Amino acid sequence: MHNNLVILAGGASSRMKKEVAVDNLTTEEITQANERSKGLIGVGPNGRPLLDYLLLNAKKAGYKNIYIIIGEQGDLFKEFYGTKNKNNNFHDLNISFATQYIPKNRVKPFGTADALYQAVEQYPELNSQSYSVCNSDNLYSTAALLALRESIITHAFIAYDRDSMEFPLERISRFAIAKLNQKGFLLDILEKPTAEILAEYKDSEGKLRVSMNAFKFDGKLIYPYLKNCPVHPERQEKELPTVLLNFLQEHPDTALGIPFSEHVPDLTAKEDIAEVKEYLKNHYPELKWEN
Predict the structure, then answer these.
(1) How far apart are CA 138 and CA 160, in angstroms?
(2) Are strands 88-90 and 155-161 parallel, antiparallel or unpaired?
């Protein structure tokens, strides 16, 4: 088992910052949505950020070393989780920060693969170890994070049952779906699937599986593919699924889809804030950090 979790928190949060009419948010919540990284929005009963709850689940899953990838304007993270660039103690978690710098010819970050590449360049020890990776704006369960940590397969990802996700059907239909072989290893990831093709992507249990960017990587093996990740032709970003699929072209049957059937609270847009607050109120009435 490995002890390293890399959290992607350097994105532009474009959808969260879009102006929309919402009547169930306070002025402070709207301000935070417009100004903060999504994982720092205060959705807990005590106003603490969503990231607190992800870190709590990571600690319960046994992770020790947390690397948070922040943007160039990400100083607010240090007000919550430690003022030093590395080795901050937050409830016995070792928190370090990596910065995702924006190339001079761009106005937005260059994608999730670029974020991870910059992180492992700043913390090269990760290139000789295994580590997990996840988003800062999704609340993955302790069980899911533990499954990544315990996996003995070279690479793995949490393959969520699409039907178990408590989102509107229209939103779920936009999720990328993963195609697995009979042994559960990843063959392909399809963005924006059409209804006609869904049957071809069902797994051996008859389930449609989606990825929510929760991965386990072997640092040494994945590094060259991170470094040489091509730019997606439509979204003009370097993306982690591209890295993994390029690796699998040369090393098939080495990325296991770990099946999970549970909801993953998600902070993508302002409309999600009230729902996530209600979820935390029901499932985490208080933060309990003790072991």
Answers:
(1) 13
(2) unpaired
Tens digit of pLDDT at every position of the chain (291 positions)? 999 999 999 998 889 999 888 889 999 999 999 999 999 999 998 889 999 999 999 999 999 999 999 999 999 999 999 999 999 999 999 999 999 999 999 999 999 999 999 999 999 999 999 999 999 999 999 999 999 999 999 999 999 999 999 999 888 888 889 999 999 999 999 988 888 999 899 999 999 999 999 999 999 999 999 999 999 998 899 999 999 999 999 999 999 999 999 999 999 999 999 999 999 999 998 888 875
Tokens of 1: 């088992």
Paired tokens of 202: 């069902």
Q: Which parts of 136-283 fold into alpha helices (H)?
A: 142-150, 169-172, 219-227, 240-250, 273-283
Count of residues making up the chain? 291
**What is the residue type of 27?**
T
- 185: Cα within 13 Å, side-chain hemisphere: 13
* 284 CB burial (10 A radius; 0-12, 13-18, 19+): middle
CA distance 52 to 39: 9
